[in-house]
Amino acid sequence: MYDFAVVGNGLIGSAAAKYLVRQTGDADIVLIGPERREESKIFDCHDDEARICRRLDVDDVWAELATRSMARYNEIQKESGIQFHYPCGCLAVGRRGGTYLNAVSACAARQGVPLKALSEAELKSHWPELRLDATLLRDFDERSDDKKGCSTHFVEESDEEKHIEYAALYEEGPAGHISPTNFLRAQLLLFTRLGGHYVHGVVERLSKDDDCWKVDLGAGKNIFAKKVLVATNAWTNFRPLLKHKLALTLTTQTAMRRRVRSSNIKIPAIIVRAGSNQFGSSASFLDACYFLPPVNYDNDDQWVKIGHGTYFERPLASEEEAIAWYQGYEAERADCYARCDLSALLQRLCGNLIIKDNDFTKPHTIPIKCVIPKTPSKRPYLAYFDQGLVACVGCNGYAAKSSDELGRLSALLLLHNNREPFDFGPNIPPDAFDPIFATPATAEDHDDRSRR
Question: Radius of gyration of the chain from Cα atoms?
Fold first, then answer.
């Protein structure tokens, strides 16, 4: 029997397993998760080489989580010998005096994050390779769903839009981007080097077995542990891992990566919220999108990456739909719309850098798919769900940069007496990660579980 089992071998699960080994010394700890295979029916979002890392945010809790995690990047790289962090800086672009930039500025002031305000002219001066000006930041024409192929295109600005000014807030390194693939490799290496056990498998069910937990991997294979952490994120509700299903909405996400001409391009990561509706559901493609500078994929050429906010999202109601989305059997037309508009924006943003698609010697544009689990609070759920059972799930697509701290807090909570309040530290209120259930929990369930 193990002292602790961590279900889910992604960025948060691997970080939590590492911290459990460090905190407990001689305890037996096992990390359980699927092996990466083409025929797998469990997919992940960490199989990527480029995610933005930044402290600038509109939410103090996410800003605090990022600040704590990013402060340890160099230490993790040094201990593991694996580089995953590239501190090229991050730009937040939006309407001058608009809701988004005002919220970012206010949050940064509260968190003590230094930001530099830049005008359109200063953006052009700092990064002449990029076209970040008012002629770029315009809305897309609306399309009807019955049109075939890529029917969206940029439209002329209205008289009102011509008077809108855009600006940016710049955060210097350690902001930039990380390689989730190498980040995960580093965490797993540290965990196993410290004596942790790593088991490949998909957990089908969790159940109480006297004073311990039975972790069912199917085909008659079981693992027993005194305490369990569930870090399965988007896949949590698809299996009986918790007593009650959580309020999680799964949505599709499409990103594009495009081959570039040179590997010596020095540009920051960019977040754009330039449309009229800067929070909530996007009415415009430009209400939320992001761009990452050239990175290396699979020891191949350099690629830039671009992705969208909520504009092209489509809800996924079942495990079958999620698998079909990853495998490409569903939503091909919606995916096509996203790919077309992302490619069009990328062409306008840095068309002089990217390789044209009329060079057919090898593919220059590759789509990337993932699934985002969203919570009503836009923050993860991190709490005791039963005696000896903690879960950290529902990360809203924001957790890669903050995964080391979320893993650390998950490990500390699992080691904590769940009958007593838990302190998440400065700038994080005790109810920041309280779970919301899709089906009501009973009074007995609330007695068994501490939300702190």
Answer: 22
Say if residues 253 and 308 touch (Cβ distance below 8 Å): yes
Question: 352 is in which domain, residue-wise?
Answer: 87-145+163-169+249-374
For 309, the token pair is 């906010």
Tell whether 237 and 261 lie within a shared domain.
no
Q: Extract the tokens encoding 255.
A: 């990103």
Task: Judge if 342 and 394 occupy the same domain.
Answer: no
**Whole-model pTM over 0.70:** yes
Is residue 282 predicted with pLDDT exceeding 60?
A: no
**Which pLDDT value is given to residue 5?**
99
CB 258 within 8 A of CB 352: no
Burial 290-301 (b: 16+ CB within 10 A, else e): bbbbbbebeeee
For 356-373, how does the pLDDT look when each residue is reduced to its tens digit (9 = 90+)?
A: 555 545 567 788 888 999
Q: Confirm if 36 and 161 have CB atoms less than 8 A apart.
A: no
Distance CA 331, CA 328 (A): 8
User: Quick one: 342 and 392 in the same domain?
Assistant: no
* CA distance linking residue 258 with residue 359, whole number of Å: 13
Helix (H) or strand (E) holding 281: none
